[in-house]
Automatic annotation (TrEMBL):
Its EC number is 6.3.5.2. The gene is guaA. This is GMP synthase [glutamine-hydrolyzing]. The keyword ATP-binding applies. It catalyses: XMP + L-glutamine + ATP + H2O = GMP + L-glutamate + AMP + diphosphate + 2 H(+). Keywords: ATP-binding, Glutamine amidotransferase, GMP biosynthesis, Ligase, Nucleotide-binding, Purine biosynthesis. It comes from Croceicoccus naphthovorans. The chain holds residues 206 to 524 of 524 of the full protein. The lineage of its organism: Bacteria, Pseudomonadati, Pseudomonadota, Alphaproteobacteria, Sphingomonadales. ATP binds at residues 29-35. One of its GO terms (cellular component) is cytosol.
Length: 319
């Protein structure tokens, strides 16, 4: 009989065996997976671990503060907080191709981890919260030749030039199992129960070019949408819900003026592992309320649509 407590003990032993007395850098993305990986590795090797939280400026509202608080106050795990907004937004300027955006972000993370490793006198390992579905989806076998659907930011290994090896203790797990392991490790429920958030962040929820202005607009819309979902008591029934800012402007009317602003799409799905997903069937009154609040409260958005596409044929994220 296999239990999470056993898994935890086995993994701790494996991590100790793999790492020896080496030093490990763990990248935190703000999501559940990397947080669980970090706490597990910390249990295994204590202060041989340095956590690095890269704030790429593509986080949701208040997300960066929440992660820093969890690690510093709740766990007392040392955390390096890197403010890399300029680097990420600078590198994304002018980029519109989804795979190019993803590849740039993945490479920028690695560069920053490498720089932090140098600062602590070198690290032997890079730890990541990669899950089983991340590995499968980055290279999907559809029966014919293999096709990459999306390059997940933390899949694909490390560049040859690097001397670091990967530590990925969650590589065999699905999301629900990671949450169970998180509970086993004592992570607070509000953290464990959070909707998944992709490493590339808002960059893949802004089709086309990403700018700071667009990120700011999207953060506001997304916050209102999630607030409404929480208030309606629906948060835990949904696998993932978020707003997307479309690169399309439409004409509207507000008061007695004309508006010409962006369209916001709302997405909410149910799923067990993120590999397939169904659309969450909100009632129309709930959606109207979200649309009204977003258009009234967010300058720059004058139209809201709901994404009714399941996965497949859609994917959960828009890029
Ligand atoms: P898709 O859009 O492929 O997403 O249907 C499936 C699940 O994976 C998340 N996702 C990512 N997570 N790095 C991550 O850590 C990534 O690059 C990435 N891309 C997608 C997505 O949010 C959903 O939960």
């Amino acid at each position: 009989d296999w239990t999470m407590a056993q898994f935890r003990d086995t993994k701790i032993a494996e991590i100790r065996e793999q790492v020896g007395d080496g030093k490990v850098i763990c990248g935190l993305s703000g999501g559940v997976d990397s947080a669980v990986a970090a706490v597990l590795i910390h249990e295994a090797i204590g202060d041989q671990l340095t956590c690095v939280f890269v704030d790429h400026g593509l986080m949701r509202m208040n997300e960066a503060e929440q992660v820093v608080t969890l690690f510093r106050d709740h766990y007392n795990i040392p955390l390096v907080h890197v403010d890399a907004e300029e680097m990420f937004l600078g590198g994304l300027a002018g980029q519109t191709d989804p795979e190019k955006k993803r590849k740039f972000i993945g490479a920028a993370f690695i560069d920053l981890f490498e720089a932090e490793a140098k600062k602590i006198g070198g690290a032997d390992f890079l730890a990541q919260g990669t899950l089983y579905p991340d590995v499968i989806e980055s290279v999907s076998f559809t029966g014919g030749p293999s096709v990459t659907i999306k390059s997940h930011h933390n899949v694909g290994g490390l560049p040859e030039r690097m001397n670091m090896k990967l530590v990925e203790p969650l590589r065999e797990l699905f999301k629900d199992e990671v949450r169970e392991l998180g509970r086993e490790l004592g992570l607070p429920e509000i953290f464990v129960g959070r909707h998944p958030f992709p490493g590339p962040g808002l960059a893949i929820r802004i089709p086309g070019e990403v700018t700071k202005e667009k990120c700011d607009i999207l953060r506001k819309a997304d916050m209102i949408y999630l607030e409404e979902i929480r208030n309606a008591g629906l948060y835990d029934a949904i696998w993932q819900a978020f707003a997307v800012l479309l690169p399309v402007r439409t004409v509207g009317v507000m008061g007695d003026g004309r508006t010409y602003d962006s369209v916001c799409a709302l997405r909410a799905v149910t799923s067990t592992d993120g590999m397939t997903a169904d659309v969450y069937p909100f009632d129309s009154q709930f959606l109207s309320q979200c649309a009204t609040r977003i258009v009234n409260e967010v300058k720059g958005i004058n139209r809201v649509v709901y994404d009714y596409t399941s996965k497949p044929p859609g994917t959960i994220e828009w890029e």
